[in-house]
Amino acid sequence: LREWMHNRDSENEESEEENHAGRNTVWSFSRSFQLAGPKLATRRRVVKEVLRDLHHISQSFFSNSFFPVLEPVIRVGSAWEGWSHQKEEDVVYYMFMPLTPPRGHAFHLEPDTTKGMPQRAMRIRVELVCTCTGKQRDKDMLCFLHHAEEELKRNQAASLLHTLCTGPYLDVEKIAVWFQTFVISAWSVVPQSGHYTMKMLPSRRCCKMKLMDTSGRRLLVEIIFGVQQGNSDIFLNSQPTEARLPPSTTWLESYAVAEAKFFRRVASQAPHPSCHLKCLRLCARVLEGSGCSIYALKTAVMHLLTLIPLSEWQDRYLTLRLDDILRYLRCCLEEKCLKHFFFGNEDMPQEICLPPDLQGAQAVNLFQHLAQDPAAQTAAMRELSQR
């Protein structure tokens, strides 16, 4: 990556002032994205209010139960990061719903050795914890470990092991059914239900909702369940990135929360107005349908944001940064190598908290499949050159 930066600097002697025509073309193309800004902001506000109210209602619904504790949602994905290139009605608002263990329970993460997983996977083993003494002492509940089974059945709700687990492991599909049932039951008391109808869309591992207002405009919301790895910004999540579904007790590692944190950091430190989000939106539109995935684009831009000084991401450098991104992607395709942003990255901002094993991990190549399939690489190169 640093070698590419050196070559790019030596080749790119053309100043930004000499590129007025190209800049005007790009700015006119990007104007359509800017015009939708206020509408998207309103839609984001509605989604935030709905999820805030659902979280508040859940606290009273499950106050005396031993279901997972639902923490406030974390907004992730391009719609919240500010660079979604989709049409207004097609934007999906992704939300992470962190789960923590209820009283008398603990979560333990175990590596999942199931073969063929496209990303790092784990299982979440649920253990009962003594509540008679120690940190979890609770005089208002019976201890699952030290009270008789008959007394527990008669006087207390079932433990998490007997509701949303398969064996000792937290079951994604059972959690999805449980949460979907809660949303359907609670919708009538959500304040926004007076303005929107809600339809639950089919999903085995998350909660997908379609909200429709009286004029027929829709909002698509997807709530993904997650369990935090220690105190890091890396979560295990319920939703796979590929069509193939893993076993219901398999949770896949997700970097979406860390990515959202990274973009918040850039937004706070970049000069205003910055062009990095415009670059993402425009490139995503240009690359749509090509062999280069949107996630590969996002990864490339995150790398460049750590290497090119943020002072050089001002609006007036827009065409230069677009050129950098596309040239860098082309170089990665030629080399069949695009390193994952969160594995062994020496340029990782200090604000991003990673698990120790990820900090020193060997770099993961997102283009490894191209190294194994020359025909796919040739096709991807051809498609990118035609954009």
Automatic annotation (TrEMBL):
<dbReference type="InterPro" id="IPR046906">
    <property type="entry name" value="Mab-21_HhH/H2TH-like"/>
</dbReference>
<keyword id="KW-0812">Transmembrane</keyword>
<dbReference type="InterPro" id="IPR024810">
    <property type="entry name" value="MAB21L/cGLR"/>
</dbReference>
<keyword id="KW-1133">Transmembrane helix</keyword>
<keyword id="KW-0472">Membrane</keyword>
<dbReference type="InterPro" id="IPR026250">
    <property type="entry name" value="ITPRIP-like"/>
</dbReference>
<dbReference type="GO" id="GO:0016020">
    <property type="term" value="C:membrane"/>
</dbReference>
<keyword id="KW-0732">Signal</keyword>
<feature type="region of interest" description="Disordered">
    <location>
        <begin position="1"/>
        <end position="22"/>
    </location>
</feature>
<feature type="domain" description="Mab-21-like HhH/H2TH-like">
    <location>
        <begin position="292"/>
        <end position="348"/>
    </location>
</feature>
<comment type="similarity">
    <text>Belongs to the ITPRIP family.</text>
</comment>
<feature type="compositionally biased region" description="Basic and acidic residues">
    <location>
        <begin position="1"/>
        <end position="10"/>
    </location>
</feature>
<protein>
    <submittedName>
        <fullName>IPIL1 protein</fullName>
    </submittedName>
</protein>
<dbReference type="Pfam" id="PF20266">
    <property type="entry name" value="Mab-21_C"/>
</dbReference>
